[in-house]
Amino acid sequence: MWFWIGFLILVFILLALDLGVFNRRSHVISTREAAGWTTLWVSLSLAFSIFVYFAYEENWIESPMGGMEAAIDYLTGYLVEQSLSMDNIFVIALIFAYFKVPEQYQHRVLFWGILGALFFRGVMIAFGIVLLQQFQWMIYVFGIFLLYSAYKMLTSSEEVHPNKNPTIRLLRKYFPITKSYYGEKFFVKIRHIRAGTPLFVALVMVETTDIMFAFDSIPAIFAITTDPFLVFTSNIFAILGLRSLYFVLANMLNRFVYLKYSLVFILVFVALKMLAHEYVHLPGWVSLVVIFAALLIGVLASLLRPAKSTEKEVAQQGQNG
Questions:
Q1: Transmembrane residues, as ranges (predicted)?
Q2: 174: Cβ–Cβ under 8 A, 6 or more apart, which residues?
């Protein structure tokens, strides 16, 4: 139990340092600054696998798994969550563009959005593990759902429709929203009436879309492991790095035209692994290599594609969507 408490304390200390010390004042996050934070989060995530190894090898955490198996499952789960969060980055960029969120306030939106995501994902992970423990056939439901998610990702275009979002519609119906921004404030008081700002609406939009993406990513990690500690920690580290990764990639998102196909392949791979789990037992390192290779091929193919061809394909995708 103290491992869970210690991990949560570590996460909140890092978040407090992020917002309270390093980003106390709202400012435009430069690519160099974001790259530094991304390096830090990735380094912490990888270093945590060493702790996982010793925790399971020395039986600090009661589990039938050995240290190496646990570390590989953690790293594979982290890679799955990190790769699937790439699609989330595209949608966040569209949300910020739609609401015209000033660049200096985007970090604040992502910080509070990710803080909320930590809570909701924790609840969803706990619920999913209970379902799998009580109803083992749910793994087939998750597998079929991931195949459907892969199909939707392959055939649908990335679009943002806040007016069609039921949460946003409900929010605007029963809560006053200002037309203009008031600095970094989410709420303001106008004529003794407390109203939300467009920054708050953007935050709600980011939060609800992350919950929708969690319906894909959380079942996907159950194909790797159902160990609660490994599922939770790998998921949380991937989410923590999402914010800084967004600012690194914000100006070059349109370059990754082939990344979607890598994500579709990863979803199909983990779905088939779920559906065939009684007949096919792949070693943990095989899943890690396959997922890493799929992600690397999608990134390299996109970066090596000539810029003009990339822009043409992006335009065609927009017209087809």
A1: 6-22, 34-56, 76-97, 109-131, 137-154, 199-223, 229-249, 256-276, 282-304
A2: none
Residue 246 lies in a domain: yes
Residue 301 in any domain: the answer is yes
Query: Residue 104's Cα: distance from chain center in Å?
Result: 22
With CA atoms as reference, report the closest residue to 11 among 45, 36, 46.
Answer: 45
How many domains, in total, are found in the chain?
1
Q: Any idea of the CA torsion for 276, 282, 288, 291, to the nearest 10 degrees?
A: -40
SS3 190: strand
Domain range spanning residue 31?
2-155+218-320
- Which among 60, 71, 54, 62 has a CA at the least distance from the CA of 284? 71
| Residues 244-264 pLDDT 10s | 888 888 767 777 888 889 989
Locate all alpha helices (DSSP H) within the chain, ordered by sequence: 2-17, 31-57, 67-99, 103-134, 138-155, 166-174, 198-222, 228-240, 242-249, 259-275, 284-304, 307-320
164 domain-assigned = no
Q: Are 197 and 191 in contact (CB under 8 A)?
A: no
Q: How many CA atoms lie within 13 A of 50 on its CB side?
A: 4
pLDDT tens column, 84-139 = 887 778 888 888 888 889 988 988 898 888 888 888 888 888 898 888 888 888 88
The DSSP code for 183 is: T
